[in-house]
Amino acid sequence: MPNQWKPTPPLDIIEPHILRLWKARQTDKQIVAELQKHFDTSRYGLGLTKFLKVREGMGLRRTRQQFHTVDTIRKAMTDLRQTYPNAGAREVVSLFFHERNMSVARSVVISYFNIYEPELVLQRKANHLRRRCFWAAGVNDIFAVDQHDKWLRYGLGLHTGIEPFSGRIMWMRVWHSNRNPQLILSYYLDTLDMLGHMPMVTQSDPGSENFGIANAHTMLCQWHDPALQGTLQHRWMRNKKNVMPEITWSQMRRWFTPGFESLLDHGVMSGWYNSNNTLQMMVFRWVFIPWLQRELDAYQDRVNNTRKRRDRNKILPHGVPNLVYQSPENFGALNFKITVECEALDHVRNLYINPSHVVFDLVPQSFGKLIQRCYEELGRPSVTRQSVWDVYLHLLDVLQVNEEIPSAIEDVEEDLPLLENHQDLPYREESNGTYYMGRVGGGLGLSDEHLHQLDNIAQDDEPETIRIDEDIVGLDHDGLVIWEFSDDSGDGDADVVDEW
Prior knowledge:
Elements: H1 11-23, H2 28-35, H3 48-57, H4 63-66, H5 70-83, H6 89-100, H7 106-116, H8 118-123, E1 132-136, E2 142-148, E3 157-163, E4 168-175, H9 181-195, E5 197-198, E6 201-204, H10 211-224, E7 234-236, H11 243-255, H12 257-269, H13 278-304, H14 321-326, E8 338-339, H15 342-352, H16 365-377, H17 388-400, E9 428-429, E10 435-436, H18 448-460, E11 472-475, E12 481-485
Parallel strand pairs: 1-10, 2-6, 6-7
Antiparallel strand pairs: 1-12, 2-3, 3-4, 5-8, 9-10, 11-12
Helix pairs in contact: 6-7, 9-10, 9-15, 10-15, 13-17
């Protein structure tokens, strides 16, 4: 009996999922298979032929349909190189896709490099790597957090949170501080509020700026499981490397920051900005921080929707970080997320965060109203890479003749005491130096029940070809994912090698 014809599902139902999967660079067949989960298949039908028509109607065209050559990408490449001078071939392909809506073959980018940047190709050198490893048992086993201080010379502090198993960046923030425990905690709680769940354990380097996350996460865990009373649900990486954030910072400094640092240094060297000048510092914050946050948001989105570079020596549950995080069962992995009650989030937020604290003000409130008024008088010019210093200088000129300039308010980075009478979680370390710092099995790793769940997942899905990733080197006999990173620079940051 022939199959009954079914209409295509309404576009408003499937379009958000098509765009999400398109951004993650999924194939047409993969998108069609995933879309079946998001509409009533008893009423609607969507096969590959229908989907291709829908995709064309949305203006989404594959690489072969765009016909890009070295000549057609040259202008866009020149613009991108101003901001991303050190990006390799894979990164440039990703930048074209996510920032310019251009699908360009990697072979075209490599040909461009060979023609116009041969000296940079020759400069690529292999690093001498020093290997270290740690494990994660599955998605939401660990959130690892870390600050980055290399932009403090501009008065800018960076902070990130990483889900190590998927490699997903949970947040990447820029502000005029990265040491205040209330501010750092707000990043974490905002993320939990958006997700509706939390990991089993949080992890960071020692430092009082992380006491807010340590306290709040411990209280949230105990709220949902009273049996955890008396145990700190946060890992202090005292003698271990906080691996994944260090890898993230290393990658960002290689691929993202050089162009932006060049732009910031241009203003400093030109005498336009001195972080010790109160007025210049406040105008700089008001103009640059929101713009840089938008750029970091775009970078985070691009990384989370890009498959990692292949490496024959290293193994990872293959996939795009967003997709691994959202559907770990599709990658033969477990999800250890803990659903968070809104009442619990509100409790710890009210306990530890004062929303009127000056650290949450971009600039003093009275000055914020003044600079906003001046900005509107200038016609609300857009802030871009090309215009950001012009907007800053125009606002500075207007404000320098204004008598309403308030004095600067120093950030108060008061200490927040750590919860008392709480023991650290045990951890598991092997004789070869690899270690597990999650909370599965009370800190000792996967139990027989977890291994049985993994076996069931493996039986449901036929194994696919294993792809290789730059950060993950293998699976141990218990199914724990093992990360490996290098540090040959002596600066304490992990180093990751890209390729041209």
